[in-house]
Amino acid sequence: TRKYADRPAVYRRDPQGQWIAYSWNEMAAMVDQASCALEILGINETEKIAVFSANNPYVLITDFAAFANRIVPVSIYATSSEQQVEYIVRDAEAEFIFVGDQSQYDIARKVAAKVPALRQIVTYTDITRDDSDHSTMTFQQFMRLGACASEACRGEVARRTAAATPDDIATLLYTSGTTGDPKGAILPHSCFDAAIEIHHRRLTSLSDADTSLCFLPLSHIFEKAWTYF
């Protein structure tokens, strides 16, 4: 058992406003399940998945599961319009989109009707599906796929993880589009590696007793990088 295995790693708030903690062990297990689920659903190395949600631990689980498969998560601001989401999904060639709440699901359904390549929606929270939707799955269903993964699936995920390099794309970061269409800036893992290393050197006052509060969206590179750290 690792030193911090059963200590809280991350918190989320339930609909009643209560804070629920996930331990490091629980987070690791969920990332493993999500990693296998992505492989089972046929998402290949270097392919893109979109993440369209407000902050919650499932966003992090999705990101880390993508990294284990050398898949590229593309974060979309939770307040983005249908037109903005369509543009990013189409430009990134994302076949899967993970959404947070009802409004994001509704937008994703409209985008899916116009972008045939978008073949799967996964919902982090309880939503009301439209009557014609027979393909969307909940995050719980997604995780159950991974929990039942075969040894062959686990072996493939392990192979992908072992093949990863610092030059692999960690994320596509889309600009605001205030001076034209948004541009997808490519950030390799080496960028995050370098940032985390320099933080370790300079922020010597931090310890395992500290807690970090997400005050920006995880779709913002500052919050994403800081939360990874």
Protein described:
It is built from eight helices and nine strands. By secondary structure, it is α/β, with parallel strands linked by helices. The strands form three sheets. Strands 4-3-5-6-7 form a five-stranded parallel sheet, sandwiched between helices. Strands 1-2 form a two-stranded antiparallel sheet. Strands 8-9 form a two-stranded antiparallel ribbon. Helix 1 crosses helix 2.
Give the C-alpha Rg: 17 Å
What is the overall shape? globular
Residues in β-strands, percent: 15-25%
Could you state the order of secondary-structure elements as H and E?
EEHEHEHEHEEHHEEHH
Structural class estimated from helices and strands = alpha/beta
Number of helices: 8
Mean pLDDT across residues: 93
Q: What is the strand tally?
A: 9
Distance between the termini: 22 Å
Let me know the largest β-sheet: 5 strands, parallel
Helical amount: 40-55%
Unreliable stretches covering 5 or more consecutive residues: none
Describe the strand arrangement of the main beta sheet, using strand numbers. 4-3-5-6-7
Structure at a glance:
The chain is α/β, with parallel strands linked by helices and 229 residues long. The chain has 8 helices and 9 strands. It has helices spanning 24-40, 57-68, 82-92, 102-114, 139-147, 151-163, 189-202, 221-228; strands spanning 8-13, 19-23, 48-52, 72-76, 96-99, 120-123, 137-138, 169-174, 184-188.
